[in-house]
Each structure stands twice: as structure tokens, then as C-alpha cells.
Write a structure and sequence with these properties.
about 300 residues, alpha+beta, D-amino Acid Aminotransferase, Chain A, domain 1, 3 domains, 5-stranded antiparallel β-sheet, 4-stranded antiparallel β-sheet, 9 helices, 9 strands, about 20% strand
Length: about 300
């Protein structure tokens, strides 16, 4: 296990170094390793290829994309689009973990870094929080260069901060469902739900069209769903799609992520390069059909 971990670390370090030399070359090498073929970056057709094209061209160090990839700065964009009412409450934002006065935070809250992803820490009982260990974790987050691994350069100019925001309660105490709306220039096409996201469970991904019809051949979970599977659209579904239209209007592609709380739509984030354009979990039908919905810029 230790040998495998060391080898993985070496590969990641090499990829980061290669990004500094050439993000395009690193992207091609990683894609070749993952998919067994070179990506078509001249006339991209699939979902992943189009995301890669945008990552390396339109979205490359684009100031608007950088702002909207920043989990704190994107709040100003959401307000500018007339959607302030769906922003989750935040308790504070800090440049340094030592600045955080935990005594001023509620018993339940979420800590996250405004930069990149996989840097979220849910606190459901502050009395059990190991504050020194938490500060150490947050310092590690602020020193992360994770975006270099897969050449997601829209994150490179984000001033890193730690955010504390309201914990979203659910009726049964489970993690809230993620709703991820795939859009191109203000037109939603598909919605992915992420169920069972927690520290102990592997999440399950289901894709639906805008009417809530399961796209069985988009994901393994969809293929494995019972034949009589029926999805009941939650209260707030139509409102969520309207917000997605507003927030995605300026972009050739963006995934607009939401939560729901008793029918109330809550904004999550804007995701411009899902899986960095290297999502090996997408089945061929998803690659083809979702790719066809992305309208790339002509100039």
C-alpha cells in the first residue's frame, strides 16, 4: 500500500510539473493514460473532449471563469444575475485558520476552501471538534496546488480563503442531495443527482432529462436501477431549472450545482470542468448525448 501511495504521489508531482511546462501536453498525456486514446482537441465531439477544449482555450485563465470558480467570489456573480435569494448563509471568510473564532460559530456548520474541490468539512457537533487538528487541515488546504494535477488553470489566480457556511439540514439527518444541472448558453439539458455523499458511503449518480426521466445508459447506477424505477421530481425542480438558465447564460458550458431544503433552492457552485474533462465514469451514451448539447464558441 505504501509503495502504491508513493508511486501515485510521484505521478501527481510529475503531472503538476508538466502542467507548468504545458497544460495542453499534460492534459493529452493524462487523457491518453485514462482512456487509452488521444483526445480530439481539433474537432471535439464527446462531452469530455469539449470540456477539455474549453479548459485549454476559452476558460484558460479567463477572469470571469476564475471569479465564478471561486466559491466566495461567485456569490457576487449570483447576485448580479438577480439570484441572491438562493445563496446559502455564510458566517465568515478568513485568509488564515488562526483568524477563526470558533466560539462565534453555531453548533453545526460547514468549513470549505473557496479554491478547487474536495475541501469540505462538515461539523454537526462543535463540542466534539478538535480545533488544533482542524486548523492544521485548513492550513494544508490553503497550500494546495491540486489544480495543477489536471491543468485546471481557472483556479490558479483564486486568492485562497476558508469559508464557514450554514449547514443544510435534512428531515432524516442525511447529507443533502446534490442536483447538478448541465447547461450551455442558458439551456439546461440534463440533471444529475448525487445521492449518499458522506465520509462512509460511495455516492451514487443518476442522470435525468428535464422532465425527470431516468437516462439509464448514462451511468452504471442508471443501468442497475430496477425496471419499475420511478423518479418523483422534488418540489423546487422547475425553479431550479429557471435559476440554472439565468446563471449559465454567459457560458458555452457550465454545470450549475444546487441543493434543496424543503423545496427551497440553494446555490452550490458553478463547475466548469467536471472531472477536469476526464470523467471515466460516463458511459458512451452520456459522452455522446451530453457532448452534443455543448455549443462551442466559433471565434
Amino acid at each position: 500500500m505504501e509503495k502504491k501511495s508513493s508511486l501515485t504521489h510521484i505521478k501527481i508531482s510529475f503531472a503538476k510539473a508538466l502542467t507548468l511546462l504545458s497544460p495542453r501536453l499534460n492534459t493529452r498525456v493524462l487523457y491518453r493514460h485514462r482512456f487509452g486514446r488521444w483526445p480530439n482537441l481539433k474537432t471535439p465531439q464527446t462531452f469530455n473532449e469539449k470540456v477539455l477544449w474549453l479548459k485549454l482555450n476559452t476558460y484558460y485563465k479567463n477572469p470571469l471563469i476564475t471569479q465564478c470558480a471561486d466559491k466566495l467570489a461567485v456569490r457576487d456573480f449570483v447576485k448580479q444575475q438577480g439570484c441572491a435569494e438562493i445563496l446559502n448563509e455564510i458566517y465568515g471568510a478568513w485568509n488564515n485558520p488562526d483568524e477563526i473564532d470558533f466560539s462565534q460559530l453555531p453548533d453545526k456548520f460547514v468549513l470549505k476552501c473557496n479554491y478547487y474541490f474536495h475541501m469540505n468539512f462538515v461539523v454537526t457537533d462543535k463540542s466534539k471538534l478538535d480545533i488544533p487538528a482542524t486548523r492544521k487541515m485548513l492550513r494544508r488546504w490553503l497550500h494546495s496546488t491540486g489544480h495543477l494535477y489536471k491543468s485546471e488553470m481557472q483556479y490558479s489566480d483564486i486568492p485562497k480563503k476558508i469559508i464557514a457556511e450554514k449547514y443544510i439540514e435534512t428531515a432524516d439527518g442525511s447529507a443533502p442531495v446534490d442536483y447538478k444541472v448541465y447547461c450551455s448558453y442558458g439551456k439546461p439539458s440534463y440533471v444529475m443527482t448525487c445521492l449518499g455523499r458522506s465520509a462512509t458511503e460511495q455516492p451514487k449518480f443518476y442522470f435525468y432529462d428535464l422532465n425527470g426521466t431516468l437516462q439509464r445508459d448514462f451511468s452504471r447506477e442508471g443501468q442497475e436501477a430496477p425496471k419499475n424505477y420511478h423518479y418523483t421530481k422534488p418540489e423546487g425542480w422547475d425553479a431550479m431549472l429557471d435559476y440554472a438558465r439565468k446563471l449559465s447564460a454567459s457560458f458555452p458550458f457550465v454545470r450549475v450545482d444546487f441543493y434543496m431544503e424543503q423545496g427551497h433552492v440553494i446555490f452550490g457552485e458553478l463547475t466548469f470542468t467536471p472531472a477536469a474533462g476526464m470523467d471515466t465514469d460516463l458511459l458512451p451514451a452520456a459522452e455522446t448525448n451530453m457532448g452534443a448539447t455543448i455549443q462551442l464558441p466559433t471565434a
